[in-house]
Design goal:
The protein is of the alpha/beta class and about 550 residues long. It has three domains: about 180 residues, Thiamin diphosphate (ThDP)-binding fold, Pyr/PP domains (Rossmann fold, 3-Layer(aba) Sandwich), CATH 3.40.50.970; about 150 residues, 3-Layer(aba) Sandwich (Rossmann fold), CATH 3.40.50; about 180 residues, Thiamin diphosphate (ThDP)-binding fold, Pyr/PP domains (Rossmann fold, 3-Layer(aba) Sandwich). It is built from 21 helices and 20 strands. The strands form four sheets. A six-stranded parallel beta sheet has the order 3-2-4-5-7-6, sandwiched between helices. A six-stranded parallel beta sheet has the order 11-10-9-12-13-14, sandwiched between helices. Strands 16-15-17-18-20-19 form a six-stranded parallel beta sheet, sandwiched between helices. The protein starts with a strand and ends in a 21-residue tail after the last strand.
């Protein structure tokens, strides 16, 4: 037990839990905690940003790229609301992010007196955005409340959490006992009976398929072994890309998966929502469904499985392998068939230009362990489906939340987490302007990310939908832009204008060979529709 302020208790608890970087903005409600961060600057790096959304996205990118905890600190009320877009994206992508949030003075909480940044019942306002919200009302409460925060964040399905403290409590001094760090993994032990039944079903299957998302990370070797035993194609979601290297004939994307689904008899679904196949691909009564998921509620969606095992992939996969090996039927290699299916999809995608030309340049420029972070843009849709991915956590996307403005600050966080790796971000001009201010943060902290801004002077996806679905009645989609490359230079970074794939290749070589942040502006016109190759979900009227 030692004397410390509430702010010191927060910081020391974070350090004890292995948090080594925190992204945030100072403010009067956070002064005492930022003073504690100053005291701990040799243990916990503080990276200040220009906007709370940027801070939270950087924490998200840090966690997505590394698999470690991402941390941010923001003021109450509007500051926390600003961070909300990133926190809900972390929720949608199953990413462990802890947000330290300020509050108004403790004696005014809930009274509606008009305190600066007051939200009536701030905690309740955020409970639909994150998994858990808690508040420490005394410095001595801090270790226990933060222990619960980490338990909620890491115990089963990894999701973001919020910890609150009032400014007067951050500054109050009292005796505080820090708690020992524990292993928060509370994933249930595998259900042997369920996995036995799954092994029998898979072992007898004629055309099994495996679907994975980011929930399979940590069990990649077991996944490959299982897929090879079953000769089962592995269909990876956007967030699961790289779980099996794209060099493997069993590694397939969702577009190819739609065709393979037509002859499947058993599907093993591991750590993914299974939304598109479950909602839009049909054949509900023809394909036996096996789910391995850490979240019992999620495992029931979008429909009940025939067999369900509630546990982590890391715990389940070794057991499933052990049970399948002795009862798996003899199988002929599907290498020729599946290589042909993959090639057919790739040929269709590579017929889309200029996307293919630009995409190939980016893939060629990135090392195999390099990280590509995508914002929400037409080039991102293309890259998420076409780009070969060789390692987990090297294609980073906003998942189903599809939050504009995600790409650039998330890429900065990824680079902070992985300073030895090359990190490239792609964004459209619309989304990039949501967090353009973080160019300043990149320069201030010398975060070596190359951002490619594809500029079509429009919200291109929306403009396409208006053209194709509403007779070209365009409204609120055309944009007035700055000269992005010149603007980057005014922040003190390299800015390059690159017109066409060859120019982009030269620009990428220059920026990736030269340390420091950079922006490449690429003019682009209307492009072919990647969505035409992707079945829309049933909410769009397609249930076949």
């Amino acid at each position: 037990m030692a004397k410390m302020t509430g702010g010191q208790a927060i910081v020391r608890t974070l350090v004890n839990h292995g948090v080594d970087t925190i992204f945030g903005l100072p403010g009067v409600q956070l002064d005492n905690t930022f003073d504690a961060l100053y005291e701990a600057k040799n243990q916990l790096r503080t990276i200040h940003t220009r906007h709370e959304q940027g801070a939270a996205y950087m924490a998200l990118g840090y966690a997505q790229a590394s698999g470690k905890i991402g941390a941010c600190i923001v003021g109450p009320g509007p500051g926390l609301l600003n961070a909300g877009a990133a926190l809900c994206t972390a929720y949608g992508s199953n990413v462990p992010v802890i947000c330290i949030a300020g509050q108004i003075p403790s004696n005014q909480i809930g009274l509606g007196l008009g305190a600066t940044h007051e939200i009536i019942d701030q905690s309740s306002a955020m409970r639909g955005v994150v998994k858990w919200v808690g508040r420490a009302d005394q410095p001595s409460d801090t270790p226990a409340v933060l222990h619960e925060a980490f338990s909620q964040m890491l115990g089963t399905r990894q999701l973001p959490v919020i910890f609150e403290m009032a400014p007067d409590i951050m500054g109050k001094t009292e005796d505080v006992s820090l708690m020992d760090v524990e292993d928060y993994d509370a994933a249930p032990e595998p259900d042997e009976t369920a996995l036995e039944e799954a092994a029998k079903l898979l072992g007898d299957a004629e055309n099994p398929m495996i679907f994975v998302g980011s929930g399979v990370f940590g069990a990649e070797a077991e996944l490959q072994r299982l897929a090879e035993l079953l000769e089962a194609p592995v269909i990876m979601s956007r967030t699961g890309r790289g779980a099996l290297t794209d060099r493997h004939y069993l590694a397939q994307n969702m577009i190819t998966g739609q065709g393979l689904w037509e002859t499947a008899d058993v599907a093993l679904v591991i750590g993914t929502r299974f939304s598109s196949p479950g909602l839009a691909w049909g054949r509900e009564g023809d394909v036996k469904l096996i789910r391995i998921d850490i979240d019992p509620a999620q495992a029931k969606l979008p429909r009940e499985a025939d067999i369900t095992a509630i546990t982590s992939a890391k715990k389940a996969m070794p057991v499933l392998l052990e049970k399948i090996e002795p009862r798996n039927k003899k199988r002929e290699s599907r290498k020729s068939e599946l290589n042909a299916a993959k090639a057919d999809t790739i040929a269709k995608l590579e017929g889309l230009n200029p996307q293919f030309g630009f995409g190939k340049v980016i893939r060629d420029a990135l090392p195999e362990d390099g990280v590509l972070v995508t914002d929400v843009t037409q080039m991102a849709t293309y890259m998420q489906n076409w780009m070969p991915v060789y390692q987990p956590r090297t294609l980073i996307t906003p998942g189903y939340q599809a939050t504009l403005g995600y790409g650039y600050p998330t890429a900065l966080g990824a680079k902070v987490a992985l300073p030895e790796k090359k990190v490239v971000c792609i964004a459209g001009d619309g989304g990039f302007m949501f967090n353009v201010q973080e160019l300043s943060s990149a320069v201030a902290h010398n975060i070596d990310v190359t951002c490619i801004v594809f500029a079509d002077k429009a919200y291109g996806n929306v403009k396409r939908f208006q053209k194709e679905g509403y007779g070209g009645r365009h409204i609120a989609v055309d944009l007035h832009n700055p000269e992005f490359a010149k603007m980057a230079e005014t922040y003190g970074m390299t800015g390059i204008y690159a017109d066409g794939p060859d120019a982009l290749a030269a620009a990428l070589k220059e920026t990736m060979d030269t340390p420091g942040p950079a922006l490449i502006e690429v003019p682009i016109g209307e492009v072919p529709n990647t969505w035409a190759l992707i079945k829309r979900p049933s909410s769009a009227g397609n249930k076949s």
